[in-house]
Design a protein that fits this description.
Elements: E1 21-25, E2 37-41, H1 46-55, E3 59-64, H2 65-70
Antiparallel strand pairs: 1-2, 1-3
Length: about 70
Amino acid sequence: MNSPDDAVICSAKGCRAPAVWVLAWNNPKLHTPDRRKTWLACDEHREHLSNFLGLRGFLKDVVTLAEWEASPRT
């Protein structure tokens, strides 16, 4: 059983809300094209974090946390 300390929370600074979204990204200057780093977002911060990554050309995908956890990754 998961404890409250195991909760997956939003990556936005100071936010303690449960994460609902996964923002997959990479920095092409640092990462290979297939590498994906992730930020987690609540509904309130999804757009802000997506815009931050998108403006830099880093954002690759936005999916729900449930979709991310269900998807096979190599």
